[in-house]
Write a structure and sequence with these properties.
Blueprint (H helix, E strand, L loop, with lengths): L1 H6 L12 E3 L3 H7 L22 E10 L4 E7 L13 E7 L6 E6 L5 E3 L4 E5 L2 E5 L3 E8 L2 E9 L10 E4 L5 E20 L2 E16 L7 E11 L2 E10 L7 E9 L2 E4 L5 E10 L6 E12 L2 E17 L6 H9 L5 E15 L2 E16 L5
Antiparallel strand pairs: 1-11, 2-3, 2-13, 3-4, 4-5, 6-7, 7-8, 8-9, 9-10, 10-12, 11-12, 12-13, 14-15, 14-22, 15-16, 16-17, 18-19, 19-20, 20-21, 21-22
């Protein structure tokens, strides 16, 4: 227990059952300075100070016209070490049809990092992630690889209620999430070995931050976003750790032709189908993840059908030195997996199917805790 306490940041759990909740009360919005209906550009600016006891990242992914996918993330530090000092880095993942996935990690010194609190304007060395909630520009380069992205929103910025999830009897800790661009139009130039290819597609951008290592709060989550026909989809299903009552925190957003039509998470049923044990991580992975949203006589069924695991990493690999040793000794075996496949939307009215559309999608399973 002593070793685990060192690794987890010396924050002890109370012996009684704690709570987890999505902040949606009037006093929550007032305290946070948020408008319940409108999202301001500053909300995508830096929301922490980067010091000990915080982490933050800005995320982008895209599906492209040649079936490639690109994922870019800018971090203030590893979310596995929020108690550490500022240690900025960016990651780039490129998956191309018929080719080996490309994965880059670019670390810089704190002096080479800057981020505005007024809007999204993050600089990591010569790399940048900039935008105002509607249009974004992203640049990442490392060695013989460079990528320049233009992202234009097709669906307005959205957040699940306030975007803050609180953990603890007195809201002691938080994990916050802002889908700044639930879906956008992407144009990018990808340069590899001096050869540049121009690609287009659809993209997504969100922003996350918190104040304590997530594995203390969350056992696991499924998260996904997709385009299916005229629909834009953002979903997540978070299961809190045992100390927080294994509370479920569902998140759901459905838009059609750029207009949000459904986002009440209380109307969602979550189902996992055909679970297998992933050979590398030992975690259960569902070949199909289903969200069903029912409102009166209408029902939407969103099904993520896995065809490939494109990323499968042990989170302990993000912890170095003595903390790696202590984490291993404490039995930590968290994993992060990212999948691609077909995302299907079925729309029912009075029990009759009136629409059935599908498109490629990206989704993930973050599994911090022990498998029940």
């Amino acid at each position: 227990m002593f070793l685990a306490a060192i690794f987890l940041g010396n924050i002890s759990f109370a012996q009684h059952k704690l709570l987890a909740r999505t902040a949606d009360r009037p006093e929550d919005y007032k305290k946070l300075g948020l408008d319940p209906k409108n999202i301001a550009p500053w909300e995508d600016g830096m929301r922490t100070d980067g010091n000990k006891g915080s982490y933050e990242w800005w995320y982008f992914d895209s599906h492209l016209s040649d079936s490639s996918s690109v994922v870019i993330i800018f971090y203030t530090k590893s979310f596995m070490r929020p108690g550490g000092p500022l240690r900025p880095f960016a990651t780039l993942e490129i998956t191309r049809p018929g080719g080996e996935p490309i994965h880059k990690v670019i670390y810089v010194t704190p002096a080479e990092f800057s981020a505005s609190k007024e809007k999204c304007d993050v600089n990591i060395g010569g790399n940048y992630f900039r935008g105002d909630g509607n249009k974004y520009q992203i640049h990442v380069s490392d060695g013989d690889i460079a990528i320049d992205v233009s992202l234009k929103a097709q669906v307005p910025s959205w957040r699940p209620k306030s975007g803050f999830n609180y953990f603890g009897e007195h809201d002691e800790h938080l994990f916050a999430w802002l889908p700044s661009v639930p879906q956008g139009e992407v144009a990018l130039d990808l340069t590899i070995g001096g050869k540049t290819k121009h690609l287009t597609g659809t993209g997504y951008h969100d922003h996350n931050w918190g104040d304590v290592v997530m594995l203390k709060l969350i056992n696991h989550w499924y998260w996904g976003r997709a385009k299916a026909g005229d629909y834009s989809i953002v979903t997540s299903y978070i299961t809190a750790e045992k100390a927080y009552g294994r509370t479920r925190l569902p998140i759901f957003m459905l838009a059609k032709n750029g207009k949000i039509i459904a986002d009440d998470a209380n109307k969602v049923r979550f189902t996992l189908v055909d679970e297998i044990i992933d050979e590398k991580s030992g975690k259960p992975v569902a070949n199909t993840v289903i969200y069903e949203y029912t409102d009166g006589n209408e029902r939407y069924k969103i099904s993520y059908h896995r065809t490939q695991t494109i990323f499968d990493v042990a989170l302990i690999d993000y912890v170095k030195g003595i903390k790696h040793f202590l984490a291993k000794l404490a039995g930590f075996n968290g994993s992060y997996l990212r999948f691609t496949g077909n995302v299907q939307l079925e729309h029912f009215v009075n029990g009759e199917k009136v629409e059935d559309v599908s498109d490629p999608g990206i989704w993930e399973l973050m599994y911090f805790g022990k498998v029940r």
